[in-house]
Amino acid sequence: MTTAVVVGSGPNGLAAALTLAAAGVEVEVLEAADEIGGGTRSGHYTVDGVLHDECSGFHPLAVDTAFSRAFDLAAEGLAWRWPEVQYAHPLDGGSGAAVWRDVDRTAQALGESGAAYRRLFGPLSDRFDKIATEFLQPIVHVPRHPIALAGFGVASLLPATWLGRMLRSPESAALFAGVAAHAFRPLGSPLSSAIGVALGTAAHRYGWPVAEGGTAAISRAMEQLLAEHGGKVTTGVRVTGRDQLAHADIVMLDTTPGAAADILGDALPPRVARAYRRYRYGPGAFQVALAVEGGIPWTHEPTRAAGTVHLGGSMAQIATAEREVWRGRMPERPFVLLGQQSQADPGRRAGDVHPIDAYAHVPSGYDGDATEAILAQIERFAPGVRERVVGMSVRSTEQITRDNANYVGGDIVTGANTPRQLIFRPRVALDPYATGVPGTWLCSAATPPGAGAHGMCGHLAARRALRRAGIAGTIGP
Asked: Can you tell me the distance from the alpha carbon of 123 to that of 103, in angstroms, rounded to the nearest whole number?
């Protein structure tokens, strides 16, 4: 029987393990931490009964993928829950903008600039099933839906600042800046619109759902289904060398490229080793979890019903902050992404105490304390919120890296979104998952299609491994 070892139990490692196990491979997952999940962990970090997500909190690209269609995680207890407002962007003075799943409702709320918003996101939303199929795989491929992809590609090539100005109003521009900033990349650079266009369109087609009972429900469902296929997960095992993996026919590495080079050592072809060690990591995150009595009193009313909130002010202010972070300087007013997951999943609350999960974009390896900067950005758009905070937990870039070795310097997207790495990651190669070591594959978020709890990096890498092992055509579309 073909055997496999998967190093790492993040969503991609578990997706790879499931894909292999469903094809009849005997699979073991080795996890260095005492808890599975990688970026899909949850816990009570502030107040008893208040449930927080440690990293990934909302999942617009995990709802309908080749992986989700191949494996019924709902049967294992995974349930998606949606907020009324998918994401919102408050501005000074009580104004702001918000996104609903309905393009027309969103456009109507934007007033005179709504027509420009509808022209951009309406056609993309109508074709997004086909578009998502194209970008949730390596960029370099022969497209099956070239016409659907064309409109998405044109918008994605633009700098986010250009596309923001095309949306015709300060509110619309700021709304797009907030979603584009998920790329951890200067908004004036080429291709900086790509992630914003993808996530913005996904909000209308799929919404930005959360996992009921916390993001950890995703990894729990995957582990349970893996066990049903005969696979197992062993925690507390740190893999440091190839000798620990020599017994397996297939090896999947849910690690950074640098860690893969360390594990594989001299077995790795020199050109691949050089590429892996040159792989660039991006800015970091500084996280603050809050327990807030009565929730956050946003002055912009729709923001109170939003699952995700982007804080940073105008497009110009966010662009300045992101540029400073990219250059290694900590801005006075950083961009802050804030999750109000209990708007969609009230079971995460304890009475009227709400979990709030926020992180600021900070320079890679930032060794300062961004807590006050984050609180100040929240207070800026919700005066009086500090008086409602009854619990708080903080994670620095160093702690984030210590908790998950894939997050180098606090980089929670596992790699800088430079133009080169958006197209070719982790290296320039026809097969981005192949390491050059027979039977060994890289399957982390450093491979296409990149960060997220969608599991597609692991699923696609495992399918390559199955084809190479002569077990092709047994699973998946």
From this structure: 10
